[in-house]
Amino acid sequence: MSEAYITRIAKFLPNESVSNDEMEEYLGFINGKPSKSKAIVLRNNGIKARYYALRKDGTLTHTNAEMAAEAVKGLFAKNPAEIEEMDLLSCATSSPDQLMPSHGSMVHGYLPESGPVEVVSPSGVCCAGMHAFKYAYMLVKLGEKEKAVACASERLSTVLRASQFEEEVQQLLKLEQNPYLSFEKDFLRWMLSDGAGAFLVEPNPNSEGISLKIDWIEGCSYANEEEACMYMGADKTADGSLKSYKDYPAEEINDHSVFSIKQDVKLLGEKIVKLGFAKFLEIMNKKGMSMDDVTYFLPHLSSYFFESKIETFFKENGIDVPKHKWYTNLVTKGNVGAASIYMMLEEVFNSGALKKGEKILLAVPESSRFSYMFCMLTVV
């Protein structure tokens, strides 16, 4: 089999950085009042800035597919004509602009200069970006593709706006109940961000500068054991199952904000680190590796709250991962879902700090129904 290398990484961030104080100027005030949970959530998640594909007046500036296409174009910025050589476009998101056509097809539609190309669209949430990457990796390894692009993008700001919850608030007012959003809906409004990232995967490393050899990519789902923890386009019933938006009368979809993104915070705290990192230890043992072999550890975090949880898990298992090995950009970019790991690796790859022989570990937990992806890279 061929080897497979990440030879270039690019990202695209829409508009200007949005500070914590500005968030409700973009997303709006629920029932005209500041959020009760915003300060608590921001204090715990540690995020100071994020990006939105919209303006303060609500005007949308980019679709999800447009942002993904801009990230892909960034891979070929030095020689735009080279995009004609792209032979795979593997695109992931948890927030496509439409149910059909596929997200990947829509991204390809913004790349007319690329010509006809194989397109695939892995679905999911945070792990979807890694699934898109693994598909590109496998096809290059098999010798079927020579210039494969994997990309991941999110545009969730539009479902976080106050207008999305107005019908539910009005229903609560009619019932004389407190017209504030439940915490499971308000929680994620202060964590999510928009943007896109892309990898170029090739069978040979760069002749100049560095590349990242893809040693392995491993994943695992616990959906057979655990109920949904984060969901959208559905509501959770008393027995823990999900009721699809397709099964609601049209008027109830708005009344219950069914298309809002929701998080079972209690289930998240109990399970997200314990399940995934136990599996990670199994994978490392199988590979005959330890954290001592890792130079840089890049965990996708939805909140800095979980950094200490991972650290505690490592220490309880006799593993010491000093802070200088950790890297995350959550504080400045927010949680960009499937695209977060692309943006983190882009900053490390283009930092000028990497040295040949160093190893980079990527860890991507997904709370939706507890899935995990891990990847080891070697700087060459």
Automatic annotation (TrEMBL):
Domain Beta-ketoacyl-[acyl-carrier-protein] synthase III C-terminal as annotated: residue spans: 285-363
Entry's Gene Ontology BP terms: secondary metabolite biosynthetic process
Originating organism: Dyadobacter luticola
The keyword Thylakoid appears for this protein: no
Protein name: StlD/DarB family beta-ketosynthase
A GO term for molecular function: acyltransferase activity
Short name of one Pfam family: ACP_syn_III_C
Keywords: Acyltransferase, Transferase
Superkingdom to which the source organism belongs: Bacteria
Keyword Transferase listed: yes
